Amino acid sequence: MGSVSALEPAGEKELVVAEDGSIPADQLASLGLRPGAHLRVVVADDPSAAPSGLAGSLPDLPDIDWDDFERASDLARQDLSQPS
């Protein structure tokens, strides 16, 4: 049986805990989980406070100064001016 991870966006699944503290069987079955499956749970903060859109989805970019930017721009111009 494969694993489901809520830590990876592609494997993220949302389950709703019922008032009695259980997770309805139909939610578990939709993930391919059978009775007796072991789950690891990561508690998320308030889901309504989660950022929407692209917030937080950009990679950490290196800090560059103006000289680095100019040098990279010169290299890009040279690459573009060369015939392919």
Commentary on this structure:
The protein contains 2 helices and no strands. The model has no long low-confidence stretch (mean pLDDT 75). It has a domain at 1-45. The radius of gyration is 23 Å and the shape is elongated. The protein starts with 24 loop residues before the first helix and ends with a helix. The protein is mainly α and 84 residues long.
Question: What level of helicity do the residues show?
Answer: 25-40%
Radius of gyration: 23 Å
Task: Give start-end ranges of low-pLDDT stretches.
Answer: none
Decide which structural class fits the backbone: mainly alpha
Shape: elongated
Number of helices: 2
Query: Could you spell the SSE succession in H and E letters?
Result: HH
Quantity of strands, as a count:
0
State mean pLDDT (0 to 100 scale): 75
State which percent range the strand residues make up: under 5%
Give the termini separation. Answer: 49 Å
Largest sheet report: none
Secondary structure layout:
Blueprint: H1 25-30, H2 66-81
Short descriptors:
84 residues; mainly alpha; 26% helix; elongated; single chain
